[in-house]
Design brief:
Blueprint: H1 2-12, H2 17-32, H3 39-45, H4 51-78, H5 81-101, H6 105-120, H7 122-133, H8 139-167, H9 169-190, H10 202-205, H11 208-212, H12 215-236, H13 238-244, H14 249-266, H15 270-274, H16 279-296, H17 303-331, H18 337-345, H19 347-366, H20 370-408
């Protein structure tokens, strides 16, 4: 027991109270965030939409998410973290109620677009606030716990959503709205504004253009996109490959459950494993491990092979989560943290579009050899992380020195 307590203290201790309120808000949001999981089923089963129309409406939600990510980044730097979080959560709660009460498909499409925008806005603000309040030496643990909470919440949402959907789709929307409102109350009550005021004129601070012309940062974003493309295979192309191998949807459900279980049970051990190593090397290893997992699929024709591959690529993604978030936080100037976070977050919707579009065509054209192509992309990404690492480290050191000088004066 003393050893267990010591390990737990090392894993979660030393983080400020504001971080834990943000972490709790994120967890509540994720556990209650099950509306989108069942939006297409709701549209077809309850509102009479065709499959094509349901796809368009869900696509509108995705388009709103891209716009919301960018808007959230700008507002995080201009309004502040707290104001952006409060406004986005309040708007999300209202829109969820509006969706629950709407019956006309054109209004549902309109509200879905706005919901995508509102639900994407808090992402940059959450991360920027964490960077503001957590010292650099503790950020690996902070981001690791954030990733853990996100996946724990998603697992909870998946379990609850199926039960609640059988009871009432409208109830699903309203409970999601209630959990969002609860997060809003928690932030209003316990989270102060964390943005540091700057005396620099707006022209010197820069804007979105600064992030979009930062070559070192964009190289890192590009490598993160490669990683996201790999992981997006797991929920887009892997189910198709399993179907082609004669495996049932239940088999894919088991694979997904295994991945979630590994993250929930193992993610807290990751910082102790990686903290003494340089981030570029950790990311290179993580992509190499993911590549190895996908390479297994080239020979997979049964469920045990898929489960083995899933365990391997999940471990790779677990290793990558803390350094990805840390590097992103370190490359961003303090006054532009929201905008940098927004550009970084765009890699995920981009991967969600590119992975099925490119992966589907590749699987059809090359069959199992598709997974060797995916593995090669991962290996290239691993090598590029080693090449790009030194320049990133020099930038991080320069940014940290400038931040220390600014806070001293």
């Amino acid at each position: 027991m003393p050893k267990a307590r010591a390990w737990w203290s090392e894993a979660v201790g030393g983080l400020p109270p504001t971080y834990w309120y943000l972490w709790t808000g994120l967890l509540i949001n994720r556990v209650g965030g099950f509306t989108v999981l069942f939006l297409s089923l709701y549209l077809t089963a309850q509102r009479g939409a065709s499959t094509a129309l349901a796809g368009l409406i869900v696509g509108a939600y995705g388009i709103g998410g891209v716009a919301g990510t960018l808007l959230g980044g700008v507002l995080t730097d201009r309004w502040g973290r707290r104001s952006t979080l409060l406004a986005s959560h309040l708007a999300t709660a209202v829109l969820l109620v509006a969706l629950a009460l709407s019956t006309e498909l054109h209004m549902i499409a309109f509200f879905a677009l706005l919901l995508g925008l509102a639900q994407a806005m808090p992402g940059p603000a959450f991360v920027a606030a964490i960077i503001d309040v957590v010292p650099a030496e503790n950020r690996s643990r902070a981001f690791n716990l954030q990733f853990w909470a996100f996946n724990l919440g998603m697992a909870g949402a998946s379990l609850l959503a199926g039960v609640l959907a059988e009871w009432s789709y409208v109830g699903l929307f309203l409970i999601d709205a209630a959990s969002t409102a609860l997060t809003c109350v928690l932030i209003f009550w316990k989270v102060p504004e964390t943005r540091q005021r700057t005396t620099l004129p707006q022209a010197e601070i820069g804007g979105m253009r600064t992030a979009l012309t930062d070559r070192i940062f964009l190289a890192f974003v590009g490598l993160t996109l490669l990683q996201a493309l790999l992981y997006s295979q797991t929920n887009t192309i892997v189910p198709l490959a399993m179907r082609d191998d004669g495996l049932s949807p239940a088999g894919y459900g088991l694979l997904t459950a295994l991945s979630g279980a590994l993250i929930v049970t193992g993610q807290l051990f990751v910082p102790k494993l990686i903290d003494r190593h340089r981030k570029a090397r950790v990311l290179a290893v993580s992509l190499a491990v993911m590549a190895a997992g996908f390479a297994v699929l080239a020979a997979a024709d049964s469920l045990p092979f898929y489960l083995l591959a899933g365990a391997v690529w999940t471990i790779g993604s677990m290793l990558a989560a803390p350094p990805n978030a840390e590097i992103n936080s370190e490359l961003a100037p303090p006054e532009l943290r929201g905008r940098y976070q927004a550009v970084f977050f765009l890699t995920f919707p981009a991967a969600s579009f590119l992975a099925p579009a490119l992966g589907g065509a590749s699987l059809q054209a090359f069959g199992p050899a598709h997974w060797l192509i995916v593995a090669a992309v991962g290996a290239i990404g691993a090598a590029l992380h080693l090449v790009a690492g030194p320049a990133r480290e020099r930038r991080v050191a320069a940014t940290a020195a400038r931040t220390r000088q600014t806070t001293t004066h």
